[in-house]
Amino acid sequence: MKVLIIEDEQLAAEKLMGYLKRHQPDAEVVAQLSSVAQVLEFFSADPKASQLDLIFSDVELTDGQVFTALEQLDLPCPVLFTTAYDQYWMQVFQYQAVDYLLKPFSYPRFAEAMLNFAQLKHKLQQPVLAAVPAYKKRFLLRKGQSLSILPVADILLIRAANGVLLATDKHNSVHILTEANLGDIESQLDPSEFFRLNRSDILHISSILQVEPYNKESVAVVLSCDKEPAISSKTRTALFRKWLNQ
Question: Which of 13, 49, 164, 225 is the most exposed place for a label (fewest CB within 10 A)?
């Protein structure tokens, strides 16, 4: 672990380094700085600045507050502040603070702060899992006074016809859906399985038997669940070909 210490009191710096070596013997202190000017120079010229894992920083330095430097920097790592003044504890969290140690602090308090840093580091290293979209799994069908379920996995074709939406399943049975808008249904279906071919038809990939040229800008899709081929909209043909080839 590479560490930078920003501290203008030599005794405080030595005590801090002693705690650090006790807690993490392999830690490397790459530099000890005591002024705002030195901090700015270090981050502008030293290649080690980009390799830091943690910064220990006092607030009051020989030529002003460390904030004067930090607000000009794109900090590469968290900062653990060490200061004799308690009035800065809210301000420091603008500068990637992981903890706020009030001098004089004990080794157990130092170890607690290092634990906070380790937990933060672990959390940042965890892979971010992409949220899995929650696609529709079933449609509720109304038949007279009864209700039944049509699994989305059974659907081959959804078609808008005469003001209603019809779903054809893998047994070639046709069901009237209670939904009224084809666009709303399209947004709820898995786009890797379903494609809206035109204004009226949403196809499941397994319903497609063959794709044939229809005219210069459209194709005819031969379906397993319908006698007549479905014709692609001119604006959807290129997207359909891309979808087939994914």
Answer: 164
